[in-house]
Amino acid sequence: MLVQPRLSSSYCSTVYIYAALPFRKVSDLVHWIALQTLGKILRIAVFQLGEYSNLCSRMIMRCYQLILSDPKEKDPFNPKRLQRTRKLLELLGGKFSTIDSIDNRARLETLYMQSSSFYESLKTQFGFERTSVMSKDGTNTEVLAPCPDLDFALIRSRLEECLGFSLSKEASSSDVTIIHNMLTAKLRLGTVEGQNGKSYILLPDKDDERDSNCVPLVIRNHSPGRSMVMDIRALFRYLLTHHDILTFDPRGTLHSTGKPSEEGFYCDIHAVMKSALTKGYEEKDIWINGYCEGAAPSLSLLATHPKTNFVIESPFADLLQVIETKPLGTRFGKSLLPAIQTKDQATLAALKPLAVQTDGFNNLAKIQTAFHETKESCCTMLCNR
User: Which of 9, 45, 67, 142 is most buried, judging by how many CB atoms fall within 10 Å of its CB?
Assistant: First the structure.
């Protein structure tokens, strides 16, 4: 009688473990590759311009734009287009300069514009000045109107330089129309018809009544996926309503140096706030306009500057929620967050005394803090996502 050998349960388990080891290694490797690839895509999608320098990033960013971006935004990162907009901002009184971030890991390019200089430049460079006219309905209305002594040839050349193409050689009277159309298109300004039958550029109303000697400063903290020169309409919205403006490109964006990260953006906005205070503005006269991914870093200023005012525009609840709405996001969501964060000790050390909490751009928690814990600050939230 043959006796069938029996294997012990412990032996079977050992054989199973050794047989499964190669498959486990392959599974881990596939998971690691997926995380690295998706993490890279997430960094580009979050920071966009910050990693726009190499071919792989450029291709990924282009696909991202085609799938998710506004189709009217054609070629937004075209260097020639950005340079022309930059030239226009300089013609209208903009001053570009650079500052160090508080961790000394980045050099940030900033743009500072004063409302008074903006209006003066609008007059001298493009021949339009602030005035009042009587509209058809009999109300006295503040408008931008052509100066009586326009130098059409000079203004034409400036326009051609900003627009990037030659204007047709037409009668001088139509040059006023060209400038009129350019301003209304670029700035999205409305028009009003006067009692004399002419059309004038309508200025927006002031946001509030204030002492004319106290001009507030708006610090515009845009999404790191954009350059500040792409926000020309947002900048002019404040300048036209008698606000000074200070904006910047966060690290890794266009001419700003440094490697993009969530912690890095917190360092950047604190450096810009420090720069604003050196210009003579008081905290109560400063408004922080945090847009999209710039919202959470902006709200981090509450801990050290409680008297500052805030306008939080288009924030998301937190980045994890955004990730988990995308394909594969549910599977890899939490694992992808480290891809946008830094391990740089100098950056982490610079943030520690500022009580900054980095948590995947968790706007919801920071907004709740702004409303429930800070009584001195005036926070206006514009949530339209």
Answer: 45
Residue range of the domain that includes 22? 13-61
Question: Got the DSSP string for 10-42?
Answer: HHHHHHHHHHHHHHHHHHHHHHHHHHHHHHHHH
Among residues 168, 202, 236, the one where a domain terminates is: 202
- Distance between CA atoms of 233 and 289, rounded to whole angstroms? 14
The string of pLDDT tens digits covering residues 338-361 is 888 888 899 999 999 988 888 889
3-state secondary structure of 145: strand
User: What residue type is assigned to position 14 of the chain?
Assistant: T
171 and 195 in a common domain: yes
Q: Please, what is the angle between helix 55-68 and helix 9-47, to 10°?
A: 80
What are the tens digits of pLDDT across the range 182-207?
666 656 667 777 777 777 777 776 65
Beta bridge partners, 130, equal 144
Closest CA to 91 of 220, 232, 188, 190: 232
First to last CA, the chain: 79
Task: Note whether residue 208 is domain-resident.
Answer: no
